[in-house]
Write a structure and sequence with these properties.
The structure is a single chain. The protein is mainly α. The chain contains five helices and no strands.
Length: about 160
């Protein structure tokens, strides 16, 4: 094996290590998969469920519920993108019009707001269904753990704000 091939092989083998290290540093050393917000974002309570000593049946129910929700999300993803694109085009047209049509702007704003409300209701229904798999004791423990997690996140947020 000549020198050039050796250098190329070393570079190829080292790339995953280099990129992995860069990702870890860029993520503030946080474990991969926690997302932009770390444990404090919209999905920050996933770890809480692992602390609730769920039965195998509960785990399976949650898995099935999550899987069905993923399917539903996939089905509506393209619909939502098309609606957002159409709304954006309408908004641009209204802003570029010669005169301001307040009624049309209000109607579009209401339509966009209604779409957001529908999305939020669906998300909350899903969370409600997930949490109703828990026993009353697990729900009480969940509330305690969630409050602790929120206090921890607020402390992190205040610390970042003061930097």
């Amino acid at each position: 094996m000549n020198q050039t091939m050796k250098h190329t092989l070393v570079a190829v083998l080292a790339m995953p290590l280099v990129f992995g290290s860069v990702a870890a540093v860029a993520g503030g050393g946080k474990a991969h998969g926690k997302g932009y917000y770390g444990d404090c974002g919209p999905h920050g309570d996933r770890g809480i469920f692992s602390d609730l000593n769920l039965t195998d049946a509960q785990k399976e129910q949650m898995r099935a519920l999550r899987d069905s929700q993923k399917e539903s999300k996939r089905e509506h993803r393209d619909e939502g993108r098309e609606a957002m694109k159409a709304n954006h085009e309408k908004m641009q047209a209204l802003m570029l019009a010669d005169s301001f049509d307040e009624n049309a702007v209000r109607a579009l704003a209401k339509q966009m707001s209604d779409q957001q409300i529908e999305h939020r209701v669906n998300r909350m229904k899903h969370r409600h269904d997930l949490l109703n798999i828990l026993t009353p004791e697990q729900k009480a423990q969940y509330k305690t753990l969630k409050a602790e997690k929120q206090a921890e996140c607020m402390a992190k947020w205040k610390e970042k704000r003061s930097e």
